[in-house]
Amino acid sequence: MGKDLATAVFAPKDRVHFRQKVRRCLDALTLMLDDRVFEIDNSMTGLEIELNLIDADARPAMRNAEVLAALADPAFQTELGQFNLELNTRPRRISGDGFGEYERDIRDSLGRAADRAATSESGLVLIGMLPTISPDHLVLENLSANERYRLLNDEMAGARGEQFHVDIRGVERLQSASDSIVSEAACTSVQIHLQVPPDRFARFWNAAQAIAGVQVAIGANSPYFHGRRLWAETRIALFEQATDTRPDELKAQGVRPRVWFGERWITSVLELFEENVRYFPPLLPIMEDEDPVAVLESGGVPRLGELRLHNGTVYRWNRPVYDIMNGRPHLRVENRVLPSGPTVADLLANVAFYFGLIRQLAEEELPIWSRLTFAAAEDNFHVGARRGIEATVHWPGVGEVAVTELVRSVLLPKAYAGLDLFGVDPGHRDRLLGIIDERCRLGRNGASWQVEAVWAAEHARNLNRQAALHDMVLRYCALQQTNEPIHTWPTT
């Protein structure tokens, strides 16, 4: 949500007034879209990278307040759990040496953070879900010391009215229950931001939705949770279930979940904001003094604070973002599909593949979403999360196809073309997309490496599951420091 919130108790009238104010914000946004006041640049990008703090035994270290105090760097922020941090990169264009700048800046920032973490007897790891997390770590006392998290937890738990239940059926099965949303802290991801002009927003969002299943399949890095091997990207299933505010009766009525893939292709960004207001009750009805329509009529740029706050409590996998930079409003697609890690090189390869592919798909005269049903895109997303790099997905003109074959024969050439449209340096383009190609050729991503490493520890060295997971995480952390892509890592 990006803002600190004081302790508050909300009355029914607060939600009524907030709802009215959000609709006033929607009116202002509609006027702004009609008047064409938005920034039209479509090449500014940004990344938010979540990471875990671990102790010497590779278990979660509840020390983010200490590490942040030692860092004193506004690029690093808290996340939900005390063992989480988030790195917000400086926005930039990816043309020319943009990816090189990203890599240098991220590695330098992580290096500084690792040095400061070491003074608190902690280390850093980029991974989708830390396999050594236990139920004892995911308790309310381990929420970060920021009132907004406690307030959000209280409101979501109150909306649910009973425990949050998790039932993930993968290779193995996990069933659990919690009184809080803290389980979501186990999910560490990368959020990819792309600024787009309003009249092109729908094309980029539709393209991002269409490829979400492919993204998560080849980028999967979260096969273990609470000692069980579940989905290749268990983070998707856990996030959907651990923050689901609907009891069974509301699910049976077809009430939409707050963690949501969506249900249709769009023709305007306004449709997404309108759906968020129409379908989801306010969680945090905190008001600002601004009258957005009045600000607009006086020649100013409204903050639309209530709309932005409400939008931040609807967890679409591809989220619309309204923001202001240098006095100009703009729109972004925020892609929330990918896990963190395994290395900075792998992470940026995933980002390059995403940027290049959606740019090319958004430019095509016959769009992919005119030939791919939305239901098929959603099926691909969950199949990709469940099966990872071994997934078979549906693609127009191809039918049912192994995701690795689809990427290598159809999608990578489009990603190359899209990066060329962005003006990406050919050296960076070839290196990063080459990582994706090799990952698919060898059939090895973060999830499959973790599974292979744990299997080897269990069967070749006779370690039990918990010991094998700890051993794997320690090896993962050491190999991560090399910045060599995951497909090159040894498993024994």
Describe this protein with a few key phrases.
single chain; 492 residues; alpha+beta; Creatine Kinase, Chain A, domain 2; two-stranded antiparallel ribbon; 16 helices; globular
Give the topology, please.
Elements: H1 12-35, E1 44-54, H2 64-71, E2 76-78, E3 84-88, E4 92-93, H3 98-119, E5 123-125, H4 147-160, E6 164-169, E7 173-178, E8 189-196, H5 198-219, E9 224-225, E10 228-229, H6 234-242, H7 248-252, E11 259-260, H8 269-279, H9 292-297, H10 305-311, E12 315-316, E13 318-325, E14 328-339, H11 344-363, H12 374-387, E15 392-395, E16 399-402, H13 403-422, H14 426-442, H15 446-459, H16 465-480
Parallel strand pairs: 11-12
Antiparallel strand pairs: 1-3, 1-4, 1-5, 1-8, 2-3, 6-7, 8-14, 9-10, 13-14, 15-16
Helix pairs in contact: 1-8, 1-10, 2-3, 3-11, 5-11, 5-12, 11-13, 11-14, 13-14, 15-16
Can you characterise this structure?
Strands 1, 2, 3, 4, 5, 8, 13 and 14 form an eight-stranded antiparallel β-sheet that branches. The chain has a two-stranded antiparallel sheet with strand order 6-7. The mean pLDDT is 95. Helix 5 crosses helix 11 and helix 5 runs parallel beside helix 12. By secondary structure, it is of the alpha+beta class. The chain contains 16 helices and 16 strands. It has one domain: Creatine Kinase, Chain A, domain 2 (2-Layer Sandwich), CATH 3.30.590.20. A hairpin with a 3-residue loop joins strand 15 and strand 16. 47% of the residues lie in helices and 16% in strands. The longest helix has 24 residues.
